Amino acid sequence: xxxxxxxxxxxxxxxxxxxxxxxxxxxxxxxxxxxxxxxxxxxxxxxxxxxxxxxxxxxxxxxxxxxxxxxxxxxxxxxxxxxxxxx
Length: 87
Known about the structure:
The protein is mostly helical. Helix content is about 65%, strand content about 0%. The chain has one domain (about 5-55, about 70-85). Helix 1 runs antiparallel to helix 2 (about 20-45). The radius of gyration is 14 Å and the shape is globular. The two termini are about 25 Å apart.
């Protein structure tokens, strides 16, 4: 699953006041994620990363590269990058 999909659903959940719509959006996301990506999606949506505290602050993010022209990062790409930071 692409990270942009998770970001889009997160924005849609935040934008609606309807609890049933929030539930519907999240259920669709988790079904689309499948058993391999769902645990990562749940962790990221809850504001936690599987690696725990990794010591990344705003100063680290300040020098981040420019966004890609087309979204291509998967949840597993992000997870692998966070593994590298946590090591």
